[in-house]
Amino acid sequence: MDFNEDQITRYSRHILLPEVGGKGQKKLAQASVFLIGAGGLGSPAGLYLAAAGVGRIGIIDSDVVDLSNLQRQVLHHTPDVGRPKVRSAEEKIQVLNPDVQVEYYQERLTAQNALELIKQYDVIIDGVDNFPTKFLINDACYFADTPLIHGGILRFEGRVFSIKPKQSACYRCIFKQPPPPGLVANCQEAGIIGAVAGIIGTIQATEALKLILGIGQPLTDRILDFDARKTTFREIKIKRNPNCALCGLHPEITELFEHEQEICQLPPSGTVAVS
Q1: What order do you get walking across the sheet with 101-105 strand by strand?
Q2: β-pairing, 56-60 with 222-227?
C-alpha cells in the first residue's frame, strides 16, 4: 500500500524513527487490535492505537456510559452519558483518525463468542474490570494463539504484562483462578485515581505497537507494577508454570468456560483489576 501526502504528514514522526519507517507504518496500517472493554484502560489504548494508524480496531463492551466513568474513561464525554460505550468509542476514534476501520460489538464477551472474535485480530488488549472475564480472555487467546496484553488498575496502582501463548507465562501461570466470592472489594469501595488508567492503558498500547512492529523487548515473563503515590515502577519476573492448568505439561483446561462473574474485583495481595 502507498500513503498519500496527508498520511505521510500524519505519521511523519513515526516514519522518522529508524525502527519504524515507512515499512513499519505499513505494518501498522495492515494490523488489527481487539480492545476488550471500552473503559479506563480501553480508552487511552484505543486513542493511541488509532493515532498510531493501526488499520483495524475492534471494540467489545456491553455497557453504556455513566457519569462516574468520565473521571477516567477519556473516550467518552459528558454528552455520551447513557449511550453505548462502543458507539461513543467508535465516534471518537473515527474523528481522531478516519484511516482506522472500527468494528464494534455491543455485547458481553462469553465462552460462546470469545474464540471466534479473538481469532479475527492480531493482538488483544484486556481492559475489563472483573477477574472471570480476564481468565476467559487469557484462555481464549491461548487457544487462538493470539498475543494478549493484560492490564489492571486500582486505587493508585496499575499492572501490565504481555503474554505470547505457548511461549511466555500466561495469566493462569500466576493466578490459578479468580478469588472466592466475598473475598473481594468492589470498585465503588476501592476507588481509582483516573490518571493511572491513562498510564497503564498507554503502556498497553505501546506493547501492542511493539508486537506489531516486531521491535524492542515486550513485557513477557515480567510484570510491570506502577505506584502513583511514589511514582515508581517495579518489575516482577515471572515464568511459565509447568503445572499450569492451561499451558502446563499436563493441561486440565481444554475448552473455554466461564467462572462465576463478580464485577470490579480486588483479590488478596493487591492484584489490580478495575477499569
Answers
A1: 101-105, 56-60, 32-36, 123-126, 148-154, 157-163, 222-227, 232-237
A2: unpaired
Contact call for residues 54 and 25 (beta carbons, < 8 A): no
pLDDT value at residue 4: 95
Whole-prediction pTM: 0.92
User: Which residue in 133, 117, 164 sits closest to 41, CA to CA?
Assistant: 133
Reported as a single tens digit per residue, the pLDDT across 105-157 is 999 999 999 999 999 999 999 999 888 999 999 999 999 999 999 999 999 99
Which positions ≥6 away from 31 have C-beta within 8 Å? 54, 55, 56, 122, 123, 212
Residue with cell 454528552: 79
Helix 21-29 with 194-213: angle, nearest 10 deg = 110
Backbone phi and psi for residue 34, each to the nearest 5 degrees, phi listed first: -110, 115
Domains and CATH numbers, the chain: 31-270 (3.40.50.720)
Cα–Cα distance, 219 to 149 (Å, whole number): 9
